[in-house]
Structure formats: C-alpha cells, structure tokens
Amino acid sequence: MTIDRLPDPPLAGPDPAARTVHAVTQDELPGLLERLEPGAAAYLTESGFTCEAGKILLLPGPSGISAAVLGLGSSGSAPWPYGALPFGLPANTSWKMAEGSDLAAATLGWLLGAYRFTRHKAPPRSPALLVLPDDVPEEVRRARILAEAMLRARELINLPAADLGPAELSDAARALAERCGAAFEEVSGEALDQGFPAVAAVGAGSHRAPRVALIRWEGAKDGPLIALCGKGVCFDTGGLDLKTPDGMKRMKKDMGGAAIMLGLAEALIRLGAPIRLLVAIGAVENAVSSTAMRPLDVLRTRAGLTVEVGNTDAEGRLVLADLLTFASEQRPDLLLDAATLTGAARVALGPDLPALFTNDEGVAAALSAAADACHDPIWRLPLHEGYASWLDSSAADINNVGSRPMAGAIVAALFLRRFVPRGIRWAHLDVYAWNDVARPGRPEGGEAMGLRAMHAGLMSLLPIGAGA
C-alpha cells in the first residue's frame, strides 16, 4: 500500500459542454437575477433561495439542468461553501465557475470537498468535475498545491493504526522527501535510544519500534531556517494509565500533528518558499506491555533534563521534548510544533479551534491574522507563568503532568517551553485534527487544521531573523 497515494483530482480541462456555477452572496443575488434568462431568474426567485453557505440550486433548461447556483452566505472569500459542489452536483458532470468567481477559493474548496477516505470502502459515487482553463492562474495553482498537502495529511490521519505504524509514518516522510527533492534521514535503534531517549521510552511498550524521521530542504541557501516538529503517536492506548474504550476509539489520529507538519512541509517546498527547512517527526506507538514505561518512572531527555512520569497518557509532550531540543540545536529562526496534545484544549475551545501558544508577539500576530484571512481559525492561549510550578517534581527536574487538574493545555505548553532555549522564536499548536461531523469541504474524519494558517503566517513573517 502506498501510504501517501491520492486519488485523481476531480479537475478537467476546458470543455465547451461544461455548465456554469454561479456562486453568490446574499448581496450579490439581485445582480445575478438581472443577468439570468427570465425563466431561470423566476425559478430562482420562486424557489426561495437564500444564499445560505453551501446550498445548491440546480436551474432547469430546455434539455435538463442548465446551470447551478451556490450560496456563499455573507462572505464570498471562504473556500468551504464550494466544498458542497463535488457531491451536490450530478456525478461525472463538468462545471465551470461563472466569470468573475474566485477560482482559487473554488478550486481549494472543490478539492477538499471531493475527498473521501476510500482505502477500505469504495466511494458511493463519482464527484462532479471542475473545469479549469489551460492557462491556470498562479493563485489557482497555489490553491491546488495547498489542497493536495491537506489531503495527504487527511489520508494519513484517517489510516487505521494497523495500516500506519511508526515505520509507515516514517515511510510517508521519506516519500515526501523523495517526491519533493529533499534529504531524508531516519533515526532508530541504538541511535534513537541515545539521541532521542524520551521518544524511545514512549515507544518501548510496542513491538513496532519507534523512530524519528528527519527531512532537510534548502529552498534558499542563505534563507532563514524554519523547523517543524510533529507528534506522530500512531496509536495511543494511554499506556499503563489506560484510556477508557471511548477515549481510545479515535486514537489512530494521535499522529495528527505529524501529518499536519508533513503537509505544511509539502506546501512550503512545492510553493518554493525562500527558506531552509528542517522537519522532525517522532513516530511511535504508546502501547501496553511489560516493557512499557511506568507511572513515576524517571526518564532522561535529549536536553539533559529528567522527567518524572506522572501519567503515561501524557506521552506526546515527551516525544516533542526531544524533537524540540534537537530542532533548537540547529538554531532555527522559527520553530513550530503541532500535536494532538490535550483534551483540555478541546474543552476550552471545542473541536474546530486549535490552541496557539507562542513566546513571540510578532509570531502570534502573524499566525492569528493569517488564520482569519484564510478561514483556517486558531485561537491564542497564554503561557501563564503562574502555572509553571505545577510541573515541579520531587524526584526529577520536571513532571510530565501538572499537580492540579486544571489548565491542562497551558500546563502542557509550559512543559514544552522548558525544551525551547531562550532566543528562539517558537509556536505550539494543540490541534484536534478531526471533523466529528461532515460539513461542506470538511468530511467526517481527519483534518489538517492550522496547515494553511501556518503556511500563510510563516510567509508573512519572511524575512525573519533569529532572536525572540
């Protein structure tokens, strides 16, 4: 099985038989009614169409369907309403966007909306096709690349843990490097035990050996170094502090941070970012066995700090601790990590809002502004210094969980901060990486939350110099 395989995109070249999609906001509806043929305008009016985002109305013509109208809600810049089109229009039909449409947003939304996880179940039907011109505009090309990066991340997250273990996740990183002309290195065995001891400890309970996958790419020889770290826990039982059955059910997605960072790396490379790039993926399985780490074990880390295991289910931060230390040793100009780290972030912000933590106000402003502009929301939470002492341990330099059952996302971020030296710009994204319910452009299942926000925010920060 090819881990990073994607189905053929539902795109087509110029087709004179393609019908037109009119995408309109409520404010634009009167203008559309004036442009339509009188019979179609009357049908649209009498149907009670309100331009609700993602709603589709098919307009009749002499020989069947003549056109379609898509509601964009109050804003026409979001890609999500277009995600309703691939399966809201008749199967295998070809469609072009009306003149003046936002073709980049339509392309992004169409590709994201057409995605279904089909490794083990055939799709119920074929999607409708979006027709693109021969001379594809640059913004449309960029939208397609971003969509493909997100789809590969979704595919990895959706794969069952039986299909995607540490070796397979590392192979996905290797495939990305080969596909994009980057250098790849895998660290395993004795080298992992010595160089990434916390990663090794997390994976010690599984017969599927842990490993660290590293990607390096030079888009600009003298460009800033951007480091991306991703939590790649391919399945999380909770370890000896076992999760409940319900809590364990979706833990195939516990490598969502790694998938998102691989997707972000693909977007940066394929779009030619003027940077040097380092990607570090900690690929492990947190399993239960006689060799698994135990509560109150004291682990060593690459940074030299010792960690008392207050809870074996707080394993993702241990993986990231070594990755952040390794990345920091390279003195990056910006260090980003992503992880499905805490349920507390979901309690605070719900499933759709990744929690952002950062030690740099400029980074916070850039990522937040980018998230708003590209409709890929994130929300900043504080690195509240008053909670740092909750991680104190009498047996080690630090505990991996807080001493109080509150502010779990903040405490986890404070733990990670201990492994980022002063002077390095750093941001941490605590993501859910999953759509609980299907919406236009966002089918149920794995989701590359924050990928486009991080890409746009990072590009807006360039050029960026070292020092926080």
TrEMBL record:
One of its GO terms (molecular function) is aminopeptidase activity. Keywords: Aminopeptidase, Hydrolase, Manganese, Protease. PROSITE patterns: CYTOSOL_AP. It comes from the Bacteria. InterPro entries: Leucine_aapep/pepB (IPR011356), Macro_dom-like (IPR043472), Peptidase_M17_C (IPR000819), Peptidase_M17_N_1 (IPR048816). It holds the Pfam family Peptidase_M17_N_1. Residues 311-318 form the Cytosol aminopeptidase domain. The keyword Transmembrane helix does not apply. PANTHER family: LEUCINE AMINOPEPTIDASE-RELATED, PEPTIDASE B. Belongs to the peptidase M17 family. This is Leucyl aminopeptidase family protein. It comes from Pararoseomonas baculiformis. The lineage of its organism: Bacteria, Pseudomonadati, Pseudomonadota, Alphaproteobacteria, Acetobacterales.
